[in-house]
Amino acid sequence: MQTHSTVRVGLVLRIFAGCCAWALILPLTPIASLAGPSRFSPGDAMPLYKPREAASPRARIGGQARGAELDIPTLIALVPDHVGFTVRRNPALCWYLSEETSRSVLFTVVDSRGIHPVIEQPLPPPIGSGLHCLNLHDYGVDLREQEPYRWFITLVVDPGRPSRDVVAGGMIERIPYDEACILGMACSNSGCTREAINRYAESGLWYDAVGCLLELLQQNDDSPAFRAVLDNLLAQVGVRLPMSRTSLSK
To answer: Which residues have C-beta within 8 Å of that of residue 97, sequence separation ≥ 6?
Structure first.
């Protein structure tokens, strides 16, 4: 017998199957090593995201309620509409929630086999509005190299009707660290800096660029300069957050 959880994951995987396919692995443009300050000034150049040259199909889903249910929050995954890359074993996965909610919210990661979730974890309520990042290290999840994963956040509207869930998510793949360094990618362990964000973005390492940027955003008390950088980076992949209530959740 199928449980609601099994049906819920199956529905999301069918959504992904209708819009996505696994991307090819292609070389990256070599870049310099990481260095630089951690602050952005108004005159600084914005990070320029350069996706890897794989012609991958759509990989982003989410995240509004069906119909006119105005009391249901909007979910937005901070991801490109193609497979995003990382050099980290357990990177942060980031998303946005428009309104605080006490409804059940599930965090799910599925590997390329898609048989059983690598993790399906309820998040403790209430979930505040704003930006959220979930670090895979905190959930004991290590990404295997050169394997695509799908991840999504599910807002359960009606526990007995998974078809009404609000879902947002994307796809991620880990590049081997040694390969990244040989290719001259941003593989230094020098920590999060302004220059690191630029290098990650230029290397096509979306998850590392966004995770580093949101780490600095939190360290700098949600500063307007860092918010402008985030808005610019998200706009490059077609993601736009509401103007209000977008602070990083603590």
So the answer is: 73, 74, 75, 127, 128, 129, 130, 132, 155
- What is the residue extent of each domain of the chain? 4-22+30-235
DSSP symbol at 173: E
- pLDDT tens-digit series, residues 150-177: 999 999 999 998 888 999 999 999 999 8
List the one residue out of 224, 246, 250, 218 whose CA is nearest residue 78: 246
pTM tops 0.85: no
Residue 37 reports pLDDT greater than 50? no
- Superfamily grouping for domain 4-22+30-235: Immunoglobulins (2.60.40.10)
Tokens of 243: 């103007």
Query: CA-CA distances (angstroms) from residue 170 to 38, 82, 173?
Result: 28, 8, 11
User: Token pair 């692995």 is at which residue?
Assistant: 25
- Phi first, then psi, for residue 100 (nearest 5°) are -60, 145
pLDDT over 60 (residue 20): no
